[in-house]
Each structure stands twice: as structure tokens, then as C-alpha cells.
């Protein structure tokens, strides 16, 4: 690089750095000013907004004092009488609404239950949640500020305690509309104002058209002021988080103001400043370059002469106008140097050219060869190249050879000999490498085949895991209409499929059965074995007189066909909700634990038998224990007590008992969660070797709605057990004999709290006995109670709580010898024909169990394969679960109609619902079965299985209803 070029570059860089520094300082200064302006603007808006909210809430305090000092209303709240509170609160609410300050008035008890709502319905969610109510009650202090209710509506709210005799008995809520503060804020700031919730959705605003620019693009978590560009328009957007009375972010206050004119002026100023600085710099550099070029011209000519002399060109001369200057002295010195060098160059020129050609040829050939070799051979060739170059650099005097031709031939001989040896070595190395790579390719192909097999096995195990978990009860609470007890359960498999199981079911109106078990081994064999054991227990339980009799029969069935000698431990118990007595049988399972209300923990160790499936014909003892209201029982598998930490220490039973003793007052689901967390904390980083399964039952109170109830005489009607004539098995294929219509019921007056249309005739609630066979299908049998003479004949109604099937029995006959048993009439919820079955279910997941039973009976009655019932129930469960979970946007009752028609060997199933329009066969995502389960996106697998199990599927929208039709051939086939 020329000297003048370097000088010019240095000056250019210096000026550029100077301009860049000044520009950076100006930008930082402007950013600092903008930051101070933004902070001042945000602080001012925040203070003004808080003042507006505080003024709005203060206007509510006068009404709040009137409500808190109203003795009649306070006494009504203490009694928790919604009717009296309604009568007292309506005038108060009307007065506040007339003054225009209060838009909502609510009264709740200290537990957060809504006693009065100025909006009319007590079923609507309250403005404040239960946690806020608990905070007000505990602290006896009001909560004030902006709150957001369940409908995402913002209100200026004052929630204050209602006291009676120094004790907080309830909470009153006064709420004002936020539109007036927003309007005042807009007038003061000249900006458009918007209130948005935590997810950025608009709740209130002054200009919806402007909000569409920012919708879905603003985060409410952080206070900030920023400039937003929309096309050619600029907006100054300020975001202020909005906090509720508990200092939680519930949304944000967003202000937007048009600042296009200001931004345009700022942009013009920046462009003018940048243009001026750039022009000045260009002009300055141009003048400096011209000056350097003219100053260095004599030196350039001198350098040209020296370059010519270095190349051997002595014809180049330099005109020196002044012999005394530096250039003239350099020219004279160059002339003398040229005369002395010419002779030496002529002598060595020929020999040097020959040697250079030789070295270049050898180097190029060896470099080409080294490029085709591996790393080790390439290094050896380069070393040989260095040796040959050293030989070529030695002169004749150093080697003692005055004949230059002989020296050149020696160098060539060494070079060609070295290249020949290297090529021979590389050829042998390549042959060995090819043989080794061939063996490795065979091993790789075998590994790929093994991986494909493992992927297929993993996919099958994933599907088995989904089926197993879906077969266990997953909906909690399972019996929402029963408040005598609470029950919860959960399982964490150690492998893809687990060897544990749990279940619970109502045997009749006052008896609840619950069971837990653990099969020997892990994986698919254990899962299949426990599936059979669970199905047998659930089918035999309603037919057994005691848990011991039930497990004895199940053990015989499991032992009779058990070629792999699998077995399972089991704990099965039946709770009588009328007195809290529990009958149980333990088949080799860890003892269950009872957490008493006193905090003591009892272990049930009195009865223990052999595991199920070990030996046929064993008897099992039935034990009993008493549960008092408030007691909780915990059933668990050995995966809890035998969990190991990193040093192989067991969690063991004493540690579990100690942990359970600290959980007094916890709900069943909380007890299971706390125990599981304790086990995880103990295990730490150690892997899980066994399934962890727990079931917790809390007995809250005894049944008080005791009515006439004939407890069935349960006896197993299967091989090896005596039958009893008191149980009759219905033939579902036979047509029922005619039944005389019952007399018209006498209507009873409706209660005061219910509308007149809700009145119904008096009924007698009796639960039918369910008779099960060792394998599906299940046959329904009803034991008819002995009729008793009554003054006025009323229809007796048989009701099953879950599922809701109602069957009418004939009226009591006149005194006569031994009346014949009465058949069950068709229920109002279903319609039977020989080849047609129509069922109407409500939008309740519990109804799926009833529907599955009806499908099993319909398939069995027409002699179709059991696989048809399994596939159809799986498809109905998937489709109807989606309808109930996602098809309705309200909490109202809806009917879902299902129709089954058997025509010419094809079973057609039709599902009709009035939910939102949705085509599951086109809108559901297609699952990628090639991915691992953890990497696969959620959704689409259930609809995929429906398409696989059914021969044909169809969807249509008709008269505002979704109609899904499924076709399945009934011939015996693999699905």
C-alpha cells in the first residue's frame, strides 16, 4: 500500500471515528431524553389513573357504610337466608342504582357463597373470588380498586366485611362502571383509552377502530411508553399494568395518541443533519487527497526507477533538475549499483532458471499425490518433499560434486523412488480399508433392521398405555350428587404400561365398593392380567354377599386359566354409607391406612389372604372396621413403600404412616398429591422401578335420606356357587308381557324455593340388583319387593343414580297368592325395536357408562362378535367426549341422541347433537405415528382410531345439529 494511501486512510478513519462518536453521543443523549420523557409521562398517567380509581371507589364508601350498618341486612346475612336478604337488599340496590354510582351490588357469606346478586341470578360467578373473600374475612379489612370478574369485565370495586358482634359474618361488594373514569382520562390526556385483560383482549375502550391496530400485540406485564407505526401514521402508546386489591396484575390501561406530525419533524431534522455532516466530510477528504498526490509525485518517479533496476532494466533513467536535492542523490547511487549487479546476474541466470524449474515440477507432482491420500500418508509425503527441497538447495560445493548435471539427476531419482514407495503403500492401505468398511456396512444394516422393530414395538406399547389409562376412572369427583364421601385415585406407571389398577363403583344406594391391586411383573403381561382381574371384580362385586366371597370367586376364575402363573395382590372393600361400617378382604396386599380425625393412623392388618391367581378353591376371610365422619382411608401399592433412593434405601411403611399423620383435614386428592411429592423428594434422582398407585376415600357423613330400601340378597349365580330363588334373570330377547297402566299420581305441592313446574309425584327409591356373568355381556336382574297394602295406589319407581335409567313397575296388586314377578318396562330415555335402539343421554361424561352397557346388550342380543361392542364403545367414547367437552359454550343441560340400526349385516350408528358446528373427520389434525409419544402433538389420535375401527364415517350439518354416522360390518373379523 502506498504511503500517500496510508496517510489518506488514516485521516479518513480519524474523521469518521470523530463523526461517529459525535453521532453516538447525540443518539444516546436523545435516547436519555426520550427515556426521561417516557418515565415522566408514565408516572403522570399512573398517578392520574390511580386518583380517578380512588375517587370512584371513595364515592362507593358512603353506600358501603349504609350497607354495613343495616342491622336487618346484617342479621339476614348471619342466618344465610337468601330470601330475606333478597327482600332487604333490593331496595338498597335500587337506591344506589338510582344515584348512578353503583352498577353492581353483591352479598356473600364468609365462605364465598353468593347470597344476593343485583344482577338477578345466584348461579352467576361473584365479582370477587373465594381467595379474596377469605383474605377479607381473615384480615377484617376492605379490598378496593379495579377488579375483573369471571366475565372479564373491569369494575371499580369496594369489597368490605360485614360484622356482627365483632365477628365477620360475610362480605359485601359494591362495583361501579369504569366507563366514566375512562372518559375523564381521555379528556385530560387527549388520547384514546383502552382497558385490556391479562391476555391482551379488549374489555373497555373509547375507539374500537384504533384498538384493532394493537389487538393481540401488546403485553400487559410491564409498564412502558413506545411509538407504534401503522403505515404512515405514528402512535404514542403507553401501557400501565392494572392491579387488583391483592396487587395482582389483572390487565392493563393502554393509551394511544397520534404523534405523526412530531415524528415527521424529527425525521426531517435527522436527515438534514446527516446530509450536512456527510457532505462536509467528503469535501474535506477530496481536498486532502489532491494535496498528497501533488506532494508525492517526485518520490513516485524515484521509486519507479528503483523497481526497474531491481528487475535488471538499466534503460530506465531519471531526470534530475536539481542535483542537490534528495531525488538527484538517489538517482546517482542507483546508476553505480546497476553497473555492478548486471555482471553477476548474467552469470547465475541460466543455472538458477534450471534449478527453479526442477523444484517446481517435483513439488507440484508430490502435492497432487498428497491430496489423494489420507492424513498420515499426506504428512509422510510432505516430509519427503521437504527432504528433496533441501537436497536441491545444496550447491555443488556443499555436496562435493562439481558436475551440476549429475546432482540434478540424483535429486530426480530420489523424488521418483519416494513417490513410487508411497503409491504402493497407499494401494495396500486402500484394500484393507475397503474390506473393513464392507464389514461395518453389514453391521449397520442389521442395526437398522433392529431399530425398525424396536420402533414398531414402542408404538404398540404407547397405544397400550393410552388404552390402559383411559380404562381407569379419570373423572373426579365421580359421584357429584353424593356428599356422604369423597374419593380420588391416581396411578403413575413405571413402564409404558403398568401392572397396578384401581376402581370404585356404587353397588346399590348405600354401598360403595372400592378396590386396588398390583399384578406380579411389569409391562404388557401384567397389564393384561390386571385388566382381567379388574373386570371380574367389578362384575362379581354386585353379586357377592361379602368381599371375601367376591375375591374367592375371582381367584378361582384367574387360577383356572393361568398358564404363565401370574398373580395379583388385591384389597377390596365395601363402605355402608348408612353407618360407616366397611367390610373388606385383603388378598396379599399391603395393609391400608386409616387417618382418624384425632390425627392417629391405623393400619388394617387383621385380615390377609393369598394373592389372586395362585391356587384354585381358596377361601378368603372378610373383615370389618368402622369409619367415623371425618376419617380418611388410604389404599396404596408397594410402589409407594418400596420406592428406593440413590443408595437403595426404602421409603417403607413407617415413613408413609408418619407422612399421613400430618395430612389431617386434607381432601383425598391433596393427600395423594402430598404423599406422591414426599415419595419423589425421598427418591430424588433414582429411577422409578415400580408403579405408584393410590386411592383415598374420605367419609364425610352418614346417609340421612334413609327411605324404604330392600337390600338385595346377593348370591353368585355362577359355577361353583349356589343360586337363590329370590333373584330373577331377565331374558332380554323375550318380549315383556303386557302391564296394566298405573293409576295417575297425585301431584304434591312444590317447595317454596322451586317453581311450580318442578313438582313431581311421590316416589319410592329402590336400587335394582345387577347380576354379572364371568365374561361380558352383563345381564340385569330385578328382585321384586313384596307388595304391601296401601290406602291409595301410587306408582313405584325404580331409579339408578348413575346411570340415570328410570323403569316403572306395576302398582301393588290386591291380596292374592304369590304374584308373578313384574318385568321392567322400557325407560323414557331409550327406545327398543328388534333391530333398532334409540338412546338419549345428557351432556355428562358419567352417561358414557350407561351407553356402553346398552351397546353391550344390543350387540349380544343380535349375536354379533364381542369385538364389535369394544370397537363401537371406543369410538362413541371418543366422539361423545369431544362433544361434551368442546361442543357447548354454556353449562346448561343438552340432549345427545344416539341411534343404532342393524340392516343386512351392517350396524349403522348415528350421533346427533346441538353443539357448535364441527366436523371431526376433516378438522381434527392428522397424527404423525412415526414420532415418539413425547414428541407427538396432542390431538387427532382418537379420530384416527375411529376411522380405523369403522368401515365408513360421515358428517353433515342438518337443521342446526351435528349428525355423525358410522357404519361397521358385523361379520367376525380382526379390527
UniProtKB/TrEMBL annotation:
Domain of life assignment: Bacteria
Gene3D superfamilies, per the entry: HAMP domain in histidine kinase, Histidine kinase-like ATPase, C-terminal domain, PAS domain, PPM-type phosphatase domain
A GO cellular component annotation in the UniProt record: membrane
TM regions (residue ranges): 272-292
Primary location class: membrane
Protein keywords: Coiled coil, Hydrolase, Kinase, Membrane, Phosphoprotein, Transferase, Transmembrane, Transmembrane helix
Compartments where located: Membrane
Biased composition (Pro residues): 735-753
PROSITE patterns documented for this protein: HAMP (PS50885), PAC (PS50113)
Pfam families membership: dCache_3, HAMP, HATPase_c_2, SpoIIE
Residue ranges constituting the HAMP domain according to the UniProt record: 293-346
Annotated InterPro entries: Bact_Sigma-Reg, dCache_3, HAMP_dom, HATPase_C_sf, HATPase_dom, PAS-assoc_C, PPM-type-like_dom_sf, PPM-type_phosphatase-like_dom
Keyword Zinc: no
All residue ranges annotated as the PAC domain in the record: 219-271
Keyword rRNA processing: no
GO MF term list: kinase activity; phosphatase activity
Biological processes per GO annotation: signal transduction
Disordered, as annotated region: 735-756
Residue stretches in coiled coil: 440-467
PANTHER family (alphabetical): STAGE II SPORULATION PROTEIN E, STAGE II SPORULATION PROTEIN E-RELATED
Name the record gives this protein: Serine/threonine protein phosphatase
Organism per entry: Magnetospirillum moscoviense
